[in-house]
Write a structure and sequence with these properties.
The chain is of the alpha+beta class and 575 residues long. It contains seven helices and 33 strands. The protein folds into two domains: 242 residues, Cathepsin B, Chain A; 276 residues, Immunoglobulin-like, CATH 2.60.40. Helices cover 17% and strands 37% of the residues. Strands 11, 13, 14, 15, 16, 17, 18, 20, 21, 22, 25, 29, 30 and 33 form a 14-stranded mixed sheet that branches. Strands 4-5-6-8-9-10 form a six-stranded antiparallel β-barrel. A five-stranded antiparallel sheet has the order 23-24-31-27-28, with no helix packed on it. Helix 2 crosses helix 4. The longest helix has 25 residues. It is globular, with a radius of gyration of 26 Å. It starts with a helix and ends with a helix.
Length: 575
């Protein structure tokens, strides 16, 4: 016992040093120059339209690189590209003849089809509608929600992330992955700016370093470009004044804005990212049939890039299942030697928790890309009923020890006697590794109430996250999308409802910590009871944190590599 205590204390003591070395080690794949080719250079057409145009540039680029549905009208069948092929929308004094419908659709998604008033003269006048709703400047929350609503409406596998306090290195990393980058230029010289541009390239071979952006504002006024092909490219070039904080400077004076030599603060990066990495259990639930039967549950990942290490746990219904094993899958083994980490105890069959396990590659090698089995668990059926399987504490890192953004698929089963309904929640819940932070994130305590016509669940997260809850209309519905309500901790929150003939998806965002969500409809079918797990007090989830973190996982991996190298060197010297 004393030996184990000393060993684990030594590992914990070296964690901070090892992580610091990992972070400070230069990437062997660093690139000095990078250009995202074929980026359009659309104009903003209106003095308040930069935020729309910056997004349209990225969406059009994605439409030409694997996401053609971004240009199609969802109301018609097939690939029609109507957002570009429809006649141009007219605008006052527009020398190019108008603007693409694509920009209008982004605005409509942001304003939820209820645009502010205005007349198109650059001023928002009470009682006026039409073109000038583009004059309105979206708030940060409206903008992000609007972009996500547009993506959802187009059924595109993309997502939107915000990076506040982003650095020049963040910009480079995202651009090299060909993500859509929107820079929010917050201020200059103590004055507010609130301008949006689209990132195109960077060049660190020159001093000072430079970036190219598609800026919808010419040096003197909003431009009216409808330039989709943009060949040859002639983007705006700005100097990088400092990398952290990310400060840039224009190479020419901008009328009504910064002058050459004045610094511009980049307040945040809005990233339109490829929603390619999804983690899920297979199967998502176990419906017991034979007492004593052994069942296997896989933890799978799809479309991940450069995965070097991962961690995850699972909650289950202890009245139905009893965990008997948690094992390493084959996925990471494709890349080389691995190290499997498991806590003690490994699970709690009274609480219904398989504690967080993890796996990492060893040595200075690239991560594994693709889809496959990360790990798997075995259960013995001990009772009748249904057990949902909820992933917790999920985290992925790449070979540069950077967090890989991902989506977690969560299924909650509502049983109304004979019929069963599945409520799906997709989120980007990600755990924090290592002290002093608690290691827990996930969805818990799902319930359905026929009397209240509501679905509730708890979420725990160290980050601000998004949630898309998809509810079958045969379970819970509303005559109008506006009749839905979403509350967090008893208070209404903004949300975006998206309906189809069979289901309703509710999209909302919220900040970190522990919260209870309640989604209420107006029409409910049958009387139901919650299934899938037992209640876990949220304020006690922190007790799970000491069992494992990816920090310790990576530390063990690095220490193992160092030990092997030293042992090998010692052998060579003695021989």
């Amino acid at each position: 016992m004393r030996h184990n205590f000393v060993k684990y204390r030594a590992i914990a003591a070296t964690t901070a040093v090892v992580l610091l070395l990992l972070i400070l080690t230069p990437s062997i794949r660093a690139e000095a120059k990078f250009v995202k080719v074929s980026m359009p250079d659309l104009g903003q057409h209106s003095s308040g339209w930069c935020w729309v145009t910056a997004a349209a540039n990225s969406f059009y680029w994605f439409s030409q690189h694997g996401y053609p549905e971004l240009l199609d009208d969802p109301a018609t069948f097939g690939a029609d590209k109507k957002y570009i092929t429809d006649p141009l929308r007219s605008c006052p004094g527009c020398p190019s003849g108008g603007y693409y419908r694509l920009l209008e659709e982004i605005c409509l998604s942001t304003w939820h089809d209820s645009p502010p008033a205005g007349d198109g003269d650059g001023e928002r006048d009470p009682g006026e509608t039409g073109y000038a709703f583009f004059e309105a400047v979206a708030t940060n929350h409206d903008y992000i929600c609007g972009l996500r609503a547009f993506i959802a409406k187009q059924d595109a596998r993309l997502e939107v992330e915000e990076i506040w306090g982003a650095t020049f290195q963040d910009y480079q990393n995202l651009l090299k992955k060909c993500e859509g980058i929107i820079l929010w230029l917050e201020s200059y010289g103590g004055a507010g700016l609130n301008h949006f541009v689209t990132g195109v390239s960077f060049d660190t071979t020159v001093v000072p370093n430079t970036i190219n952006v598609s800026d919808p504002w010419t040096p003197s006024a909003p431009d009216h470009n409808n330039d989709l092909d943009h060949d040859p490219p002639t983007y705006d070039t700005w100097e990088v004044v400092t990398g952290d904080p990310f400060v840039i400077g224009p190479q020419q004076d901008i009328t009504g804005g910064p002058k050459k030599g004045q610094d511009i603060n980049v307040g945040k990066i809005i990233c339109i990212c490829k929603r390619s990495t999804v983690v899920f259990t297979d199967p998502p639930k176990i419906k017991s049939k034979v007492i004593g039967e052994t069942v296997t549950v896989n933890i799978n990942v799809s479309n991940v890039n450069d995965l070097y290490g991962w961690q995850a746990g699972i909650t289950f219904n202890p009245h139905v299942l009893e965990c008997t094993g948690y094992y390493e899958g084959e996925f990471l083994q494709r890349g080389g030697p691995t190290y499997w980490i498991y806590p003690t105890p490994t699970w709690d069959n009274t609480k219904g928790i398989a504690y967080t396990h993890g796996c990492t590659l060893l040595g200075s090698i690239p991560g594994v890309s693709g889809s496959g089995q990360l790990g798997y668990l075995t259960f013995e059926v001990i009772g009748t009923g249904v057990s949902d399987l909820h992933l917790i504490n999920v985290k992925f890192v790449d070979s540069n020890v950077e967090v890989i953004q991902h989506e977690v698929v969560d299924i909650y089963t509502v049983s109304l006697g004979s019929p069963e309904f599945s409520v799906e929640t997709i989120s980007n819940l990600t755990a924090i590794s290592g002290p002093p932070y608690l290691l827990f994130s996930g969805l818990l305590n799902h319930t359905f109430s026929s009397e209240e016509k509501a679905i509730t669940f708890d979420f725990v997260t160290p980050y601000d996250n998004f949630y898309i809850v998809t509810i079958p209309k045969t379970l819970l519905s509303c005559a109008n999308l506006s009749d839905w309500t979403v509350e967090v901790d008893g208070e209404p929150v903004p949300f975006v409802p998206i309906g189809s003939s069979t289901q309703t998806s509710i999209y909302f965002t919220y900040h970190n910590s522990s919260h209870e969500v309640k989604i209420t409809g107006t029409t409910v079918f049958g009387e139901g009871s919650p299934v899938g797990g037992i209640y876990i007090p949220v304020n006690k989830l922190g007790l799970l944190a000491p069992y494992i973190g990816l920090t310790i996982l990576l530390t063990v991996a690095v220490m193992t590599v160092v030990y092997v190298k030293k042992r090998k060197r010692h052998t060579e010297i003695n021989s």
